[in-house]
Design goal:
Layout lengths: L10 H32 L1 H12 L11 E24 L5 E7 L6 E3 L2 E4 L4 E9 L9 E9 L3 E10 L4 E12 L18 H4 L8
Parallel strand pairs: 1-7, 1-8
Antiparallel strand pairs: 1-5, 2-4, 2-6, 3-5, 6-7
Helix pairs in contact: 1-2
Amino acid sequence: MTSVKLPKLDTASFDALTKASLSAAESYFASLGEFARLFMSMNPAMQAMQDVKRSCCDIPPACWLPRSLGEVRSFVCAGATASFRIRVTNCQPRSSSIEVAFAEATAGKVEPASATLGPMERKSFNASVAVPANADKGHEIETLLWVRGCNAYYLRWIVEVRENASQSCCHEIEVEDCSDYVHHWYDHFYCDRPCSHQKSTRNPLGG
């Protein structure tokens, strides 16, 4: 059998070959990285997965905290009335008492103020804020509306006075008031931590 002799490489040649191999490998993996980034940027599903991965460690609000319905801004003329319609659906297999009220009773009116909804029933509650006739342009009235049923919800409502605005303004929002039967993993991250002034009134010995 004929043996094949491999050429001997000196140290300089070996180092040059090693560096060339490493450079080629780095270029290859770099090109894969660019391809992966390009693929993900063009693929909405992959982007969504990345967003979920980045936010997977965020702890959602506790289920027993009041739920925000957002912030709404209305624009009306001086002397006009801003209105807000809240449609509440009782998506429970039992009756539920629903109450809609301003945080400050004198801030506005709610009709009806409360109602009992049967299983899967829905009802509209109309809230209104009357703007004084002598209100200046740019004047703002900020109110807080509460919806209390199976859960508690709050809506931040800002009424701003503007010239040439509508004489009345009406918004509408849907509220699905449902029971939450799911035991959430993040429920274990919450405990009762009162404010500092409340802590000072407690006996550190627990008495």
